[in-house]
Amino acid sequence: MAADKGSISNTGEKKFNASAFLTQPIKYIRSLCGPEMPHYKLTYFGLKGRAEIARQLFALAGVEYEDKRITFEEWPALKSSTPFGQLPLLEVDGVIIAQSITIARFLARRFGYAGENDIDAAKVDGLADTFADYFTEQKNFFPVLIGRVPGDKDALYKEVYEPARDKYIPMIIEHFLKKSTSGFLVGSKLSYADLLLAEHVSTFQEFLPHNWDKYPELLAHRDRIQAIPALKKWLETRPKTPF
Amino acid sequence: MVHYKLHYFGLYARGEPIRQVFALAGQEFEDTRYSMEEWPQHKADMPFGQLPVLEVDGELLPQSMAILRFVGRRFGYAGKTDVEQAQVDAIADQFQDYFNEFKAYFVVAVGFAPGDKEQLFNSVMIPARNKMFQMLSQILRSNGTGFLVGDSVTYADLLLSIHVAGMDGLTPGFANDYPRLLEHRQRVESIPALKHYLETRPFAPF
């Protein structure tokens, strides 16, 4: 029992290794669980941006990963070695997956945040695609809002952003939030669509405190989602970046 | 028996990859095609006021890529493991970005908007095409199976072959600088179920 180091006994049972358990309990228990856990490495800039949903999924699932944050100076050297010349990238046991929503969907599927059946998964995906359409429609506004591109913020807000917001948000509220009995956008469980929406609502509220005055349902949804303990903890402890 | 009904226009565009998955799978579906005149009456019935929508036993699923992924996964044309599925999805996402990039040219080329088609072809379409086609040729080369992901046809292959065929129809010789992609199109189109489908499908301008 004392210095076994978890050896297999004659009966085929592994003997309990008390010292390993006491010094590195998680590692020891993992070693008993069989094959190595997958190794995840998420590469992005030191921003929330297009990697934040993936990071939130890891936090919700309680899964360890390497949260690699590169600088803008390091990026050009790395760019040509990436599948599509972009970040974020997720490396899973040596395989590289690109495209932020694909990464989110992949992790969500693995960890159980992608809908409870394939029909719900399709609804979650469809919502994510609709967010993408909405973001695309106001893509000339966001860089000006966050100060990365010069421009007339107020004019773009009125002419570009508000019409996009008022086209998409009511549909999301009517077809998903109001029809939900769970408080989640699709089905009865949290999905990555909820994370996309809540994060977007938070980011825009930080820059534009009255942006969601007409849509209290979104603020309520955001509050519900961000109260989930594992997510709340991540939001409190994640590196602070403006966007 | 599950009942599938695809709601779309009489176009290839965002509906055709979905139709071709049904064809590959040998799965019957109701192929509803709205005319431009009747569409406004049905718009409010659709979750986001857009087409395509796939109706599955009464459930309405919007967004072409989400639908494509759904049928791809149900019928086995989406990648064999979750990692492969993510690689197929990533290519689909890249197609979406690419379509957004050359949209300004496309709407003029098919007559939906006024503009200088020649100028837009050179300034918008060609750079976008070259970037995308180079990446896809590289993916085909490294994968080495003749398909984009894994060793059999997925909806990523359909997105590519349909795009090459469609653009070649608009501008003959569109993909001639990319022999790997021409070869890929031949390979996909000669899959028996697809070959038969292509010979019998209703014609559409794009």
UniProtKB/TrEMBL annotation, chain A:
On the tree of life, the source organism's domain of life is Eukaryota
Tell whether Transferase is among the UniProt keywords.
yes
Q: What is its EC number?
A: 2.5.1.18
Pfam families, alphabetized:
GST_C_3, GST_N
Q: What class of enzyme is it?
A: transferase
Where do the GST C-terminal domain residues begin and end? 117-243
- Its catalytic activity? RX + glutathione = an S-substituted glutathione + a halide anion + H(+)
Q: Where is the GST N-terminal domain?
A: 38-115
Which keywords are on file for this protein? Transferase
**Which GO terms of type biological process are on file?**
glutathione metabolic process
Q: Which GO terms describe its molecular function?
A: glutathione transferase activity
Q: Which CDD domains match?
A: GST_C_Sigma_like (cd03192), GST_N_Sigma_like (cd03039)
Q: Which InterPro entries match?
A: Glutathione-S-Trfase_C-like, Glutathione-S-Trfase_C_sf, Glutathione_S-Trfase, Glutathione_S-Trfase_N, GST_C, GST_superfamily, Thioredoxin-like_sf
PANTHER family given for it?
GLUTATHIONE S-TRANSFERASE, GST C-TERMINAL DOMAIN-CONTAINING PROTEIN-RELATED
Family the entry assigns: Belongs to the GST superfamily. Sigma family.
Per its record, how is this protein called by name?
Answer: glutathione transferase
This chain's source organism reads Mesorhabditis spiculigera
TrEMBL record, chain B:
Q: Name one GO molecular function term.
A: glutathione transferase activity
* Domain GST N-terminal intervals: 2-79
Q: Domain GST C-terminal spans what residues?
A: 81-206
- Biological process GO terms, please? glutathione metabolic process
Q: Which organism is it from?
A: Mesorhabditis spiculigera
PROSITE patterns attached to this UniProt entry: GST_CTER, GST_NTER
| UniProt-listed InterPro entries | Glutathione-S-Trfase_C-like, Glutathione-S-Trfase_C_sf, Glutathione_S-Trfase, Glutathione_S-Trfase_N, GST_C, GST_superfamily, Thioredoxin-like_sf
Keywords of this entry: Transferase
Please tell me whether the keyword Transferase is annotated for this protein: yes
The answer on whether this UniProt entry bears the keyword Thylakoid reads no
Protein name listed in UniProt: glutathione transferase
Query: Out of the domains of life, which is the source?
Result: Eukaryota
Query: Enzyme group, top EC level?
Result: transferase
Catalytic activity entry: RX + glutathione = an S-substituted glutathione + a halide anion + H(+)
Q: Which family does it belong to?
A: Belongs to the GST superfamily. Sigma family.
Q: What is its EC number?
A: 2.5.1.18
Question: Which GO cellular component terms are attached?
Answer: cytoplasm
